[in-house]
Amino acid sequence: MSLLEQLAFPILFIWFIGLLLSLFRRDLETHWKFFFFLVFCFYMVQFFPEFWAGVARWKESPKREILSWLGSMGQAIYVFLFLLWPLVLIRIYYSASNNLSKTLIPVLSYATVVYWALFFMWSYYTKEWYKFIEDFIMSK
């Protein structure tokens, strides 16, 4: 199963919650709310088979599905950081404000190092992590 197939259900579900919250926000203009809704509908139609397969997996075994989401989210963050870093470096170069650079650089740097440490611990101790998380989730 691909990363996209694994994460379509939780991402679209979280997106739906965010869409509902933004629709109830009073200070957003109506045309932005409509645009948010259209973007959500586009992705929902685009990834509907993956979403529906995720719903079926969730109904079959919700605890196992949560466990697989955790591993998939880690992989997704890895890919996201790979795409984010070059864009941030270009943004820092063209930034007119030094404050942006002074806050963005340390936050992204420390977050990346912490993620790498967790990622390598996860990579080397995958069986132990899965056993720990599975025991934690399955015990409840």
Question: Can you walk through the features of this model?
Answer:
With 140 residues, the protein is mainly α. 89% of the residues lie in helices and 0% in strands. It contains six helices and no strands. The protein has helices spanning 3-23, 30-46, 48-60, 62-94, 98-124, 126-138. The longest helix has 33 residues, at 62-94. The radius of gyration is 19 Å and the shape is flat. The chain starts with a helix and ends with a helix. The mean pLDDT is 88.
Helicity range: over 70%
Unreliable stretches: none
The largest β sheet comes out as: none
Write the H/E string, N to C.
Answer: HHHHHH
End-to-end Cα distance? 27 Å
Task: Describe this protein with a few key phrases.
0% strand; 140 residues; mainly alpha; single chain; 6 helices
Q: Which helices and strands occur, and which strands form pairs?
A:
Layout: H1 3-23, H2 30-46, H3 48-60, H4 62-94, H5 98-124, H6 126-138
Helix pairs in contact: 1-2, 1-3, 1-4, 3-4, 4-5
In a few lines, what is going on in this structure?
The protein has 140 residues and is mainly α.
